[in-house]
Here is the input.
Amino acid sequence: GPTVQGLMGYRPDSSIYSYDPAKAEEHFRAAFDGKLWDVGFEMTAYYSEGTTEAASALAVLQQSLARINPKFRMRIQALTRSSFREKSYGTSNPESPLSYMGWGPDYSDPGGPLGAASYYLASTGLVAGFSGDGYRKLMREEFDPLLAEAWALNDPALREPIYARLQEMSHEYATTQFMWEAVTANVTRDWVHGYVHNKVLYGAWNFYNISKHE
Here is the structure.
């Protein structure tokens, strides 16, 4: 789900998807009363040029789709950032059927306009902006009420279960394919002390806390 470790609502045992081609085939065969399986599809997945992990991840998806059904054809295209934005969002029904992107927290609360849960699961969030009318309708009906309820509370003990439920719902409804959480390392001499890894700062140093002593 959208809530990463360190934010309210994160659970280490959150549900994740497994690689299950048989289950994927089951869903594909059921889609559009079987027509999708018989006819197949062609689409282009986009990513920002220079993002090597995006190219690799999309290539795995491309190959997996072809193995399930050779009629499932997915092209992969790298775009400049400006072209990627133009394809992905800005209209009520964006041109891009599938986009790869990354995200990092803006502040340490999952709610509000820029929180992790709102970013992905609100009908007015950024992800809704490039996901089309169907996604926004789902968010309005199922997710917006819970987001509003949690944001109106000021007791963390009451808010946390709501965000945890939203985390589970993002898995149940398959709102986004969350892939991995990046891991970074900061290496220093053993006489440098006080570094705190803050994900909101993307690993940047707060030198006010740093000290040097043997």
